[in-house]
Amino acid sequence: MCKFCITHGEGGKWYEVARNYAMKMYNYQKEEARKKRAEFIEKKMAEVKEMMEQGRIIENGEGWYVDSSGEFHAIPGGAIDLDIVGAELVQEVVDATSMGAEDLPFIKKKVNSFTNKYHMNHVITYQEAQKVLEMSWPIALMECICRRERRGMYNDPQAWVCFSLGVGLYKFERWPETFRGLTFLSVKEAKERLEYLHKKGCVHSLTTFYTPYIGGLCNCEYPACLGIRGRLDYGLDIFGKGHEIVLPVSENCTGCGECVQYCQFGALNISRSMNKLTINLQKCFGCGQCAEHCPNSAIIMKERTKMLGLHDNW
Amino acid sequence: MLMEILINKERCTIPLNCRMCLKICPQCVFQLHPTGIKRFEEIPPENWKLRVSYSDLCVGCMECVKVCPENAIKVKPLKGQNKEVA
Q1: Which of A15, A66, A218, B4 stands the most exposed, by the fewest C-beta atoms within 10 Å?
Q2: CATH class for the domain made up of A244-306
Q3: How many interface pairs between A and B have CB atoms less than 8 angstroms apart?
Q4: CATH code for the part of the protein at B3-77
Q5: A104-117 pLDDT, tens per residue?
Q6: Which contiguous run of DSSP H or E holds residue B27?
Q7: Which residue of A has its CA nearest to B57?
């Protein structure tokens, strides 16, 4: 079972639980609760200070610290920009990889503890993405941060692919660069945009901001997406696999190769000798793009948990 | 072989207005990253800095060197590595 479903699923899939889109996760509080939280933050800060004096903190920055076991912690009450911190942490792994640093496993552990706890993407299928748009409110379309930074698509309508969801949107005026090109959409308009992006072949994924609060529905592509690249090229736990996988139906397959161009993860291949599709299921993320675009319905979706060898491969 | 990409910051002053290397790179190694973010403010164009993000993925195709209008990019093999090909 998916690790997020175990901790936040309430007996089902974690992204189908309405609470995970709700305001509660964003710490809206009444007077009394706010006072309690302030006390908690004070206590935690004193704890952090004590830890620092004892030398149990090996690294710290603005609003976060890393304890001696290599776990990343955000200090409660401290304002950290998860996008920026995440990108910097991935950059640290990239630099360590290129230099062949000996402490690469420790850096990876730190980054994975950050992504699992605070900021991670999780692949969903097109149907589930439609359901998410029905569940969450408000919905706004914004410029993709990855495409802007990695491909230079600045003020480019082709980069308006990320849906920002839920109450996290209240701060769109506070960070105009993060929420560049923000357009509020109705559910119908959002679904039309989603259909357009789906036909283009983008991978739908949910983004968490302080897991399990779901704050975004991204439509990603390799290599511009930091998440897919971090997972495929650097082995980071930043882009989680979906709840489904695909299986080829060889009787229907004509070997046209239409599906191969829609795989962002390099899992599909056409067998030249048999003229049939073969799928590397260890690499499959379950986005369902190949199944949707197959003209002969030669690819079927199946639940990951039903496959004995794959049920723990997330 | 690992490559080293050098960006001349004196020549590449406002990369946000050009972005040609970002668009042409087949391995997508560059990053345009914002500095000096402030609340309630859009950052000025000169605060967007160009840097090399995935330097270990560079293949040395020299497309960025050819396309740069200011000749600000240099690509060369990284010094101090074993040159024998495995």
Answers
A1: B4
A2: alpha beta
A3: 53
A4: 3.30.70.20
A5: 999 999 999 999 99
A6: none
A7: A98
